[in-house]
Amino acid sequence: MIRVPEVRLLDENNEQMGVVTSDRAREMARERGLDLVEISPMAVPPVCRIMDYGKFKYEQKKRANESKKKQHNIQVKELRIRPQTGEHDVAVRLRQAREFLNAGDKVAVIAVFRGREVTHPEIGLEALREFAEELKDVGRVERTGSLEGKRITMILAPSRKQA
Questions:
Q1: Residue 77, strand partner residues
Q2: What percentage of the chain carries pLDDT values higher than 70?
Q3: Of 64, 68, 82, 102, whose CB neighbour count within 10 A is largest?
Q4: Can you tell me whether residue 99 is helix, strand or coil?
Q5: Contact in structure between 2 and 38 (CB atoms under 8 Å)
């Protein structure tokens, strides 16, 4: 509801119609079968536009949906290795991580310890360091390995030039 006595009016083609009374502006909008919308309430006098508000909201929603389609949601893919994991298995995990990073997703590499392996976390850290070194061309380390219980987690993000 527009409660000021005078407004600066724009018509449906965005052309200035000058300063008119609020009642006259409402009447002009009603004659054209459109709505009177306050665009800039802080201006002196406030700026109002004659427009089809329903159509405006519809087009705004359509633009928002269009931009939503084009964005890529980054997911965190998880890969697990153990300190005793063989070379071939590590190569498979490297290939998977490379695919995920090229697709723009983050990769959480987790070194899992069993039994007494946890007494030597440096072996797991070294495995993660080598993993990151192999992928430095497509990804960067976002969070270095940190020991949490019987696992060490490292997060790799796509390189800035790729993302």
A1: 107
A2: 98
A3: 82
A4: helix
A5: yes
- Distance CA(26)–CA(85), nearest Å, equals 75
Q: 144: pLDDT confidence band, cut at 50, 70 and 90?
A: confident
The total number of residues shown for the chain amounts to: 163
Burial of residue 63 (CB within 10 Å: 0-12, 13-18, 19+) is: exposed
Domains of the chain by start residue, with CATH:
6-70 (3.10.20.80), 76-158 (3.30.110.10)
The tokens 């987690």 sit on which residue?
153
Q: In the chain, how long is the greatest CA-to-CA distance? A: 84
What pairing do the DSSP bridges indicate for beta strands 35-40 and 47-51?
Answer: antiparallel
Angstrom CA distances, 15 to 8, 11, 49, 113, 152, stand at 11, 6, 9, 71, 64
Picking from 86, 135, 137, the residue whose alpha carbon sits closest to that of residue 109 is: 135
Residue 26, both tokens: 């409402």
